[in-house]
Inverse folding.
């Protein structure tokens, strides 16, 4: 592959040659103008304009990004890492985790008292009989208050459970991204193989049609055989173009997924694997509680159970309140100035107990019963989700066994089709079968080749889905 720097030097050389040709052409035009007594300023303007346009075109071509000339090779793991880095869903999940971590790490701040400073100015009524000369008072004070409910520890636990929930959410997002990237990567490998097969078929078809045309011109084959070969050859290029269009559409989708520039060309590495998964893998014990959806629901159970416990504690236990204030004194001023007065500390310790909330028809009891029913519903949902998970595992295993049989049969069919085509080709050369029969056998051989690629893709993606289901995708 020619480097981008060498290409640029070639472009520069070409355009300088073009400029010289333009100047020479203008010289001859000028000679004609002299003969026709035309103003030479027109000639100079033409040369100058051509020179500037030439440089503008040159600058434009050289300003094309060099990465558009290079093909980036991307492995499957590179693609996964790029998608996790540039995905908006992955970034949002990370930010949500950071937010919940912030709340978790600072959940102890409920024990921090509310500290405040206060000041006020008041005026004494001068018309009162016992009023003195001072009519204005400036009051200052510092206070600290702390209120602790019986469920204060549970609130800290809730912050931890909420953080665990977003950790599970982020893991689910990243796993979905990884699964999607790997499946599309397999599609790219499959389309790459399909395009290569169709290109090879087009080259062979062109060579074969040229031979058929020569044979037809020499009267060795009939017009029907010639037209049949021409019809089949004419279908090869549209079929190839159709697959190339689909290939480019998937590549565009893949660029957006992994964060590549729309102009950046790339190439996937490797081939679509047809390795059969070891079925002893099915004998491994699958921990149903490791399923992300079930983990998420179990975390909800912890949150709801903790909330229910908090409702019970707040309803039947008193809340504690502590407050302390310090008053440095009041400053009185008016007709004269007086010093500080009413100085000192003030402490308050209180217990608050609501008798209404322990009644069966109270608001707290209503919330308790509601939370209890919702907790039962959630546990039933978990049981149902566990049954669904087990059913999915069993069904995926059945599908993989079926697709293994399909893949094995597809490999066998391709081998038979290849052998059959070789025998038919020899028979055609020997004159025992006609060209139409050979074309039909060749078409079956091509279809078997393409079908094997599709079966490989289906099986490979099914393996990815099964590994993702049992949390073995890594």
């Amino acid at each position: 592959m020619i480097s981008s720097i060498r290409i640029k030097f070639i472009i520069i050389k070409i355009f300088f040659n073009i400029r010289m040709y333009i100047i020479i052409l203008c010289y001859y035009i000028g000679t004609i103008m002299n003969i026709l007594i035309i103003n030479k300023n027109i000639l100079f303007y033409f040369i100058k304009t051509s020179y500037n346009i030439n440089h503008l075109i040159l600058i434009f071509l050289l300003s094309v990004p060099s990465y558009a000339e290079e093909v980036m090779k991307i492995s499957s793991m590179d693609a996964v890492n790029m998608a996790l880095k540039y995905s908006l869903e992955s970034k949002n999940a990370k930010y949500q985790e950071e937010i919940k971590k912030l709340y978790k790490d600072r959940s102890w701040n409920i024990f921090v008292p509310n500290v405040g400073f206060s000041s006020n100015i008041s005026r004494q009524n001068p018309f009162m009989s016992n009023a003195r000369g001072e009519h204005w008072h400036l009051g200052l004070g510092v206070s600290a208050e702390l209120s602790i409910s019986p469920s204060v520890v549970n609130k800290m636990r809730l912050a931890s459970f909420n953080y665990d929930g977003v950790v599970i959410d982020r893991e689910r997002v990243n796993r979905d991204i990884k699964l999607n990237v790997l499946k599309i990567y397999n599609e790219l490998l499959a389309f790459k193989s399909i395009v290569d097969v169709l290109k090879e078929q087009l080259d062979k078809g062109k060579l074969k049609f040229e031979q058929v045309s020569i044979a037809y011109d020499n009267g060795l084959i009939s017009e029907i055989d010639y037209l049949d070969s021409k019809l089949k050859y004419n279908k090869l290029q549209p079929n190839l173009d159709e697959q190339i269009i689909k290939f480019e559409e998937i590549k565009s989708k893949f660029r957006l997924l992994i964060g590549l520039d729309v102009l950046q060309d790339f190439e996937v590495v490797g081939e679509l694997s047809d390795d059969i998964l070891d079925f002893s893998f099915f004998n491994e014990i699958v921990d149903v509680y490791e399923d992300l959806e079930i983990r998420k629901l179990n975390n909800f159970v912890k949150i709801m159970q903790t909330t229910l416990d908090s409702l019970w504690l707040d309803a039947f236990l008193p809340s504690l309140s502590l407050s302390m204030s310090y008053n440095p004194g009041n400053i009185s001023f008016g007709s004269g100035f007086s010093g500080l007065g009413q100085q000192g500390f003030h402490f308050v310790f209180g217990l608050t107990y609501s008798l209404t909330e322990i009644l069966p028809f109270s608001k707290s009891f209503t919330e308790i019963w509601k939370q209890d029913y919702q907790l039962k519903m959630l546990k039933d949902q978990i049981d149902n989700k566990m049954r669904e998970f087990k059913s999915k595992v069993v069904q995926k295993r059945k599908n993989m066994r079926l697709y293994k049989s399909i893949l094995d049969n597809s490999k066998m069919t391709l081998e038979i089709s290849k052998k059959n085509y070789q025998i038919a080709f020899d028979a055609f050369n020997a004159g025992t079968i006609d060209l139409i029969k050979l074309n039909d056998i060749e078409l079956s051989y091509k279809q078997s080749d393409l079908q094997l690629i599709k079966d490989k893709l289906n099986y490979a993606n099914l393996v990815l889905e099964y590994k993702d289901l049992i949390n073995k995708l890594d």
